[in-house]
Amino acid sequence: MPQPALLIIDMQMGMTWPSAAVRNNLDAEKNIECLLAQWRKASAPIVHVHHRSRTPGSPFYPDQPGIDVQPAFAPIDGEQVVTKQVPDAFTGTGLADLLQKIEITSLVIVGVSTNNSVEATARTAGNLGFNTYVIADACFAFAKTDFDGVPRTAQEVHAMSLANLHGEYATVISSIEAIELLKE
After folding, report:
1. Segment holding 107, helix H or strand E
2. What is the pTM of this model?
3. How confident is the model at residue 156 (pLDDT cuts 50, 70, 90)?
4. In Å, how far are 7, 60, 61, 144, 156 from 24, measured between CA atoms?
């Protein structure tokens, strides 16, 4: 059985800018780096997902430094890169075909933001039949006001997004549990 693919979503410079809202999980990058190192050590498949927004003013709009990949997450030879224009990494990218071609059945999803690109991608992955894992301590969210006008902390946004996914579209686990998937 093939090892799970690690999907690293939107770990680009725009996420490090001071204009980004208050966020949770300040150890997320450290945990993603650890997972990336473990996947590389195991020669397991890695897919980097990069966002190229169609919205002027977005930190991911083309031809500005926000789209650059954070150095710690730069792809190396042999690692796949998928470029998306919407939150869901499967929409319009060929990601499903790529994963099928390399016979991937399980995905481990990390990155930003939990309630946006991570959740959108995990929902589609689950709907497509992939055994999908979202790593709670290797993604993060930003504070946001809900539909009723109630301000929500980044942790509340993160926790609700993970609750939306767990048990229906994905299994939410820790980075330590994710590393164990490489040993199965």
Report:
1. strand 106-112
2. 0.95
3. very high
4. 20, 21, 24, 12, 9
Tokens of 94: 């060929």
Query: Three-state SS for 85?
Result: coil
Q: Which residue has the tokens 């997902």?
A: 49
Sequence-separated (6 or more) residues with CB below 8 Å from residue 54 = 85
Is-contact 113 142, C-beta < 8 A?
yes
For 35, the token pair is 């997972």
Upstream peptide bond of 175 is cis (omega within 30 degrees of 0): no
Q: What separation, in Å, do the N-terminal and C-terminal C-alpha atoms of the chain show?
A: 9
Give the pLDDT band of residue 18 (cuts 50, 70, 90): low
| DSSP states along 20-53 | SPPBS-TTHHHHHHHHHHHHHHTT--EEEEEE--
Instruction: Please give the Cα distance from 126 to 165 (Å, whole number).
Output: 9
The alpha-carbon radius of gyration of the chain (Å, integer) is 15
Interior angle at CA 96, CA 91 and CA 99, nearest 5 = 145
Distance from C-alpha of 113 to C-alpha of 154, rounded to nearest angstrom: 10
Enumerate residues 6+ apart whose C-beta is below 8 A from 90: 96, 121, 124, 125, 128
What tokens appear for 41 in the block?
A: 């050590």
